[in-house]
Structures are given as C-alpha cells and as structure tokens.
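Posting for a labmate who doesn't have an account.
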Amino acid sequence: MPCASVGLLFCILLAVERT
C-alpha cells in the first residue's frame, strides 16, 4: 500500500505514530 494511496499526510502521521 503506497503512501499516495492513503494520502501523503496520513502516511507521515502514521510514520510519526510509529516512532
């Protein structure tokens, strides 16, 4: 699932939550 599929902002948010 590419980031563009769910949304760039959402992808970044997920990455931040996974810190």
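Reply:
Got it, the structure tokens are right above this. DSSP finds two helices and no strands in the chain.
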